[in-house]
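dumping this here so i dont lose it
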């Protein structure tokens, strides 16, 4: 909702005050919780006094903006959440010594916690709303998306460099390692140079988890989610920007789509975490306390659905290769996260329509004579489901065949059907593994590279060229062989612009893969254990934002890490997104040259 104010100069001044206050909030939390050496009591009191002052700044800013607003009703409609938020804060502050704690120190801790939560909510809502406003500023929204990812990566690297983010008796992360880890988490890749479970403390693991969630769904989408949850209707320009970023077909479906993304993500991840809870008992000694068990479940559930591939275990899921949870919980989470929210939204609508029709026919006999046609599955959904299922089956069959008859050594040679199925599922999107990748045959690793190059589906948390792109490219070749005039799938014609986009994406991804492989072969030539197969596997895993590795990642040089960082970011955003951001203002020409026949093939 676009609010109008009487004094625009005062509004701009308040924006600067908000920016400075948000920076001071972040700095106060970093000083309080980012360092291992405890602060003196006097220093803590000063920081808490600063947070109380910032609390007054945020409350005063709301009062001034209310008085400066042209329409008081619109202002309250856009900021209705401030009232229950302030009431909850007031109850916490006044009732800390009576209802929430007994001693003076406990009451003070409750008050500090309440103020801190309020400040964090204020900063997050302002940041997310700013992202949506920037995306709707009339400029290229892809630039806003790129800027938001860069901001998230740099901020995450700064938090991971804090002393308290390092594990017990572990050294602080260097900048390059922190930047690598932050990029891998934000781009939901899963490549690591440090052991997530051992080299990071609980704080560091929570930072990584937050980066995975924000990077997986997109910080701009989170901004729109907060705006809708807090009752702030998107303006027409904001809706168009979000439609472009979410690839929604119509503006009318945009609000439902964003709400579905948020609710669906929370529901699926919650169900996954609860379902994983008993899985850790299969390997005694790994997870000792119930709190660790819950955190482990939540961490791996979010990492699976966001297709991040981060694990708290050094061997990923190798120790759980025979556990039921890997196949009945982790695999479905990976598949759902890789299908894309537009496909999940379509399937949910179809299921809801079928259930509604069933009950209407059962309890309303007159409804049978006025029934509407059932909702049909969209072409996008058909393509995604067919290609995804085909790739899972073909990939598993190929790896099972190659591991048994094409050489290989070690444990991977004994890969069973479930192991091959899991690697086929995770190779396109997630990056977990139940077998040692370095011991797999060269043929199987090549299959993994192909699966990583293809990736998941459009609108999902996965990378790669996407399943729909692969289908369009294949059917374009089939169309040429059949000498048909148009590319056809499921009795529908595909527009020539879509065909050109699919071919462009494939060529750009292939170019980035080969350039990255060449660059890594130069920077890693001093590593005797790095052969060309391992280097191409590493580049393909980074570009597909998968996270599988043959063991080369921790031994990369600083130059090699920088290359992988760039490739992960390109793979997450997509080469076409970066190209569109650079060529947004280029106007199409209004003329055509005469054509002339040439010979190809």
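and the seq i came up w/
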């Amino acid at each position: 909702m676009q609010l109008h104010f009487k004094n625009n100069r005062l509004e701009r001044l308040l924006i600067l005050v908000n920016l400075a206050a948000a920076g001071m909030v972040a700095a106060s939390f970093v000083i309080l919780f980012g360092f291992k050496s405890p602060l003196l009591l006097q220093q803590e009191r000063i920081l808490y006094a600063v947070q109380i002052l910032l609390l007054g700044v945020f409350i005063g800013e709301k009062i001034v903006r209310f008085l400066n607003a042209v329409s008081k009703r619109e202002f309250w409609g856009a900021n209705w959440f401030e009232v229950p938020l302030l009431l909850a804060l007031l109850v916490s502050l006044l009732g800390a010594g009576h209802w929430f704690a007994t001693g003076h120190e406990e009451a003070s801790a409750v008050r500090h916690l309440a103020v801190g939560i309020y400040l964090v909510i204020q900063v997050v809502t302002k940041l997310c709303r700013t992202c949506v406003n920037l995306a709707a500023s009339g400029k290229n929204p892809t630039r806003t998306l790129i800027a938001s990812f860069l901001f998230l990566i740099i901020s995450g690297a700064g938090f991971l460099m804090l002393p308290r983010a390092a594990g017990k008796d572990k050294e602080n992360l260097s900048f390059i390692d922190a930047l690598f880890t932050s990029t891998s988490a934000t781009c939901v890749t899963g490549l690591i140079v440090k052991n997530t479970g051992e080299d990071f403390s609980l704080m560091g693991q929570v930072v990584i988890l937050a980066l995975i969630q924000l990077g997986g769904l997109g910080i701009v989408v989170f901004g729109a989610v907060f705006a809708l949850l807090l009752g702030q209707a998107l303006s027409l320009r904001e809706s168009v920007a979000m439609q472009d970023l979410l690839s929604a077909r119509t503006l009318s479906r945009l609000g439902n789509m964003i709400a579905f993304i948020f609710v669906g993500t929370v529901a699926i991840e919650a169900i996954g975490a609860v379902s994983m809870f008993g899985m850790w008992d299969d390997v005694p000694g790994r997870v000792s306390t119930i709190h660790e068990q819950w955190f482990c479940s939540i961490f791996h559930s979010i990492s699976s659905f966001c297709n991040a591939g981060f694990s708290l275990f050094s061997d990923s899921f190798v120790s759980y290769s025979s556990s039921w949870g890997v196949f009945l919980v982790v695999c479905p989470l990976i598949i759902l996260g890789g299908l894309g929210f537009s496909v999940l939204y379509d399937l949910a609508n179809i299921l809801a329509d079928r259930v509604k029709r069933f009950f209407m026919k059962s309890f309303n006999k007159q409804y049978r004579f006025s029934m509407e046609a059932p909702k049909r599955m969209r072409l996008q959904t058909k393509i995604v489901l067919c290609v995804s299922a085909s790739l899972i089956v073909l990939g598993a069959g190929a790896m099972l065949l190659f591991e048994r008859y094409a050489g290989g050594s070690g444990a991977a040679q004994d890969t069973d059907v479930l192991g091959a199925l899991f690697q086929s599922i995770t190779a396109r999107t997630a990056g977990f593994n139940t077998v040692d990748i370095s011991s797999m045959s060269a043929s199987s690793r090549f299959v993994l590279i192909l699966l990583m190059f293809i990736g998941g589906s459009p609108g999902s948390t996965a990378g790669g060229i996407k399943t729909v792109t692969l289908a369009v490219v294949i059917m374009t070749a089939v169309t040429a062989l059949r000498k048909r005039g148009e590319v056809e799938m499921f009795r529908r014609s595909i527009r020539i612009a879509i065909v050109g986009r699919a071919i462009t994406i494939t060529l750009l991804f292939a170019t980035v893969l080969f350039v990255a492989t060449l660059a890594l072969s130069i920077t890693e030539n001093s590593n005797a254990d790095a052969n060309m197969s391992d280097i191409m596997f590493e580049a393909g895993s980074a570009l597909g934002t998968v996270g599988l590795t043959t063991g080369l990642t921790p031994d990369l040089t600083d130059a090699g890490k920088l290359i992988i960082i760039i490739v992960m970011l390109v793979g997450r955003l997509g080469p076409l997104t970066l190209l569109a951001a650079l060529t947004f203002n280029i106007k199409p020409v209004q003329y055509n040259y005469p054509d002339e026949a040439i010979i190809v093939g």
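The chain has a mean pLDDT of 81.
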